[in-house]
Amino acid sequence: MLMKSFFPFIVLSVLVVIAIFLFFPTKPENSTEAEDIKAIEAMSNARAEAFNAGDAAAIAAHFTDGAFLMAPGTAKKIGPEAVEAYYQEIFDTYQTRLESGYEEVKVDGDLAYGRGFAKVTLYEKSTGDTLNSSSKYVNILERQADGSWKTTHDIWNDNE
User: pTM for this one?
Assistant: First the structure.
C-alpha cells in the first residue's frame, strides 16, 4: 500500500529529470572553456563577415529568438526579425566595412559574455560620403541545445 502512494511521486520525479535533460542545453562533455571561446569567436567573426557582405539575414541568424539589440540612439530591437530589419536599413543606404573583435570572453556554463571593439566605415551609396565610427561593445551569449552559441544581448556605444 505504501508503494502505491509513492508511485505518482516517483513517476513525476522521473519526468522532471527527463524534462531537464531534454529542454535545458548542456555543455558537451568533451567541450573545454578554450573550445567554447573559440566557437564564440568564430560566431562573432561570421557576424562580422555578414556585416561586410551586407547580409542582414546572416547576422540575425546568430541571435536568439528573444535577443536584444541595443544600439546607440535607437530604440531596442527584440528578436532576429527586428535585428535583421535594423541591419537591412543600414545596408540599403550604405556599403559597409567592419573591423571588430573580442578583447575578453568569459564562459560560465551555458552563458558567456564577450567584450570587444568595433571600427565601422560606412560609404553612402547615393553620395559617396564616408562615415567612420569606433565603439566598444558587450555581447551576452547562450549555448543552444545543439551546442552552438547565439547572442542574447548586443549592446554598444560610441567612443566618440
Answer: 0.79
